[in-house]
């Protein structure tokens, strides 16, 4: 059966656009599945395995590292690449600053089953938050800490659940704005979702934003724009010389001290 040109060409264009959009949105995730990763670090960090079941039935994996003598627990939501084993530096700094930490691998990452999607990452974060609540941590003792893509997950979770404070490392306003900075014109037409700019004005929680001065992945202007849209109390730390992936090294001992000060300022 021959398809008339006035029908065939539009169908072809729509199909092409859909394929490009699907590829663009999937490219946001770069999961590293077990056994790939630095799993030998688990013993050095003193991390305990935690297994969670999400609201849609996906089994996900997390590490729990307790810090004796602290009242706080940080739920750490990492970026789009690697897995929990690649955040050993953050685990050490957060615990040394005065908080226990639960770091979760999203579906499709590390030992977690499934495949990552925006809605799926939000469910994974809710499951991890629920674990902390069941472990006896009230909202006033939970700090949400997002990194890169995880900042959007943290903002989403904070819009639904109470928390003591919110830490955002290399945040962005929306996936569309990031795409616009990478590929002006076409990028925003292919990518959507993870819209923190729309959600953050509704939050009333202490906020600490950290962003590398020379971030080549998420421009510091996007982090600043999200910060400006947030309510006080809030603070913004632009780390001199830092790029997207070397913030800890560039910040040095100040990273731990900034977190310690933030934790100490929480009600």
Highest CATH level, the class: Alpha Beta
Helix tally? 11
The number of distinct β-strands equals 10
Total count of domains: 1
Q: N- to C-terminal separation?
A: 70 Å
| Percent range for β-strand residues | 15-25%
Strand order, biggest sheet?
2-3-6-4-7-8-9-10
Radius of gyration: 19 Å
CATH superfamily: Alpha/Beta hydrolase fold, catalytic domain
Shape: globular
**Average predicted confidence as pLDDT:** 90
Element-by-element helix/strand order: HEHEEEEHEHEHEHHHEHEHH
pLDDT < 50 runs, ≥5 residues: 11-25
**Helix content range:** 40-55%
Enter the CATH topology name.
Answer: Rossmann fold
Largest sheet: 8 strands, mixed
Architecture, CATH level 2? 3-Layer(aba) Sandwich
Instruction: Find the structural class using helix and strand composition.
Output: alpha/beta
Structural description of this entry:
- By secondary structure, this protein is α/β, with parallel strands linked by helices.
- The chain is built from eleven helices and ten strands.
- The strands form two sheets. It has an eight-stranded mixed β-sheet with strand order 2-3-6-4-7-8-9-10, with helices on both faces.
- The chain is globular, with a radius of gyration of 19 Å.
């Amino acid at each position: 059966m021959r398809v008339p040109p006035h029908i065939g060409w539009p169908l072809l264009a729509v199909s092409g656009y859909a394929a490009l959009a699907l590829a663009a949105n999937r490219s946001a995730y770069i999961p590293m599945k077990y056994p790939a990763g630095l799993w030998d670090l688990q013993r050095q960090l003193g991390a305990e395995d935690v297994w969670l079941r999400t609201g849609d039935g996906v089994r996900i994996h997390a590490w729990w590292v307790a810090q004796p003598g602290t009242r706080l627990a940080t739920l750490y939501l990492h970026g789009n690449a690697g897995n929990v084993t690649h955040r050993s530096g953050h685990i050490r700094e957060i615990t040394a600053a005065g908080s226990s930490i639960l770091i979760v691998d999203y579906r499709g990452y590390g030992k977690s089953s499934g495949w990552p999607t925006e809605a799926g990452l939000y469910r994974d974060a809710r499951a991890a938050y629920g674990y902390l609540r069941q472990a006896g941590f009230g909202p006033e003792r939970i700090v949400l800490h997002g990194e890169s893509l995880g900042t959007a997950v943290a903002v989403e979770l904070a819009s639904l659940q109470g928390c003591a404070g919110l830490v955002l490392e290399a945040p962005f306003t929306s996936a569309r704005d990031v795409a616009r900075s990478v590929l002006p014109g076409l990028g925003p037409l292919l990518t959507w979702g993870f819209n923190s700019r729309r959600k953050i004005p509704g939050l009333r929680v202490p906020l600490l934003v950290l962003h590398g001065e020379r971030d080549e992945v998420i421009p510091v202007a996007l982090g600043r724009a999200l910060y400006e849209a947030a309510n006080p109390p809030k603070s913004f730390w632009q780390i001199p010389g830092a790029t997207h992936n070397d913030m800890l090294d560039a910040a040095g001992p100040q990273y731990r001290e900034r977190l310690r000060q933030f934790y100490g300022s929480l009600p």
